Amino acid sequence: MLAFYLVLVLALLAGGFAAIQLGAETGYVLLSYGSWVLETSLLGFTAAVALFFLAIYYSLKLLGFSFTLPGRWRRALERRRADAARDSFERGLLKLFEGQWKRAEVELVRRAADHHAGHLNYLAAARAAQRVGAGERRDRYLALVRERAPHLQFAILLTQAELQRERGEFALVRDTASQLRQQEPGHPYALELLAESHDELAEWSSLRALLASPGAVKAMGAARWRELAARSTRELLRSAVAAARLDDLKAVWQATPAEVQALPEPARDYAQGLARLNADAEARAFIETRLEQTWDEALVLLYGPLHADDPVAQLAVLERWLQLHGERPGLLETAGRVCLKNKLWGKARSYLEAIIQIAPTPGAYLELARLCELTQAPAEAEQHYRRGLELATAQAAS
Q1: Percent of the chain with pLDDT over 70
Q2: How many Cα atoms within 13 Å fall on the side-chain side of residue 123?
């Protein structure tokens, strides 16, 4: 634009200079060709030449414009379609974020063919179709994404797994997440999806193997990893007990990571499993070792009913714990039961009465009532039965 104005100013200056110079003398031009003769002034000739070249210039420009007109028209239409496709995509995304699933699907699909990134339209439309329960349309949109953008296979599979997860199709989630892991073994979200599908499908051995893979803790986060590892361990321990397989029970525990073994619930399940499979000596040894490291009153309660070839040694262990940890209710109750089992009536009574004074429990009243029956005190036994029942009823009501 600046150059145009500069040329215009120069033309005006040239015209003014020519008018001054030719004011007194207009000049004379004579052109002759055959029988044709042209006579004119210099100014008229100059103007005619200028007009001639201007006519040639604009004629050529008009001719060129006529040749490029179809292309210009086509590009203008393409721009209009692209702008409309972009606007439709943006409106569809907005409807998707607003939770208007049907309108979002319509907007996203309507001009997807004209959008420069139509695969994004179909990915978003698949999510909208998922929300309205249209599984067939969802799968068709994902198929269209595969056709248009085969290089986005990972994004397609990830979207597919998320949508399957939302519908609770965890067998399909497992298969899709396995494909994701084949493409990118270290992808954290793929690992999380696969772990969740194993968890939901109760595939505990597969879940345990997955959690043992390199980078699983970092990918899932320590808390989530520990939660799933503990659950898979407990379920495998219970399965071994249900199948009455002591060797499997031990193998599961030995293969358990130390950070999971340190948790109280898996340790209790293992000790209880040993007891149920009649491995009382191993259960006692495990509980004694465990309680040397960390105190767990639930394990103390499991310890009491275990059979011991040397009841005096078992009672000595309990008395040492009493010295170390004080008169805890669970420890007193266990000591009382061990004494009762070994017919040490006096010690049994002292332990059970100590519980009732500190923190009475229905179990303590029950054991004390049994002691009274064994020592020929039926009236006192009846009194303890009644108090234990009243306490149990009160605890259940609260």
Answers
A1: 88
A2: 19
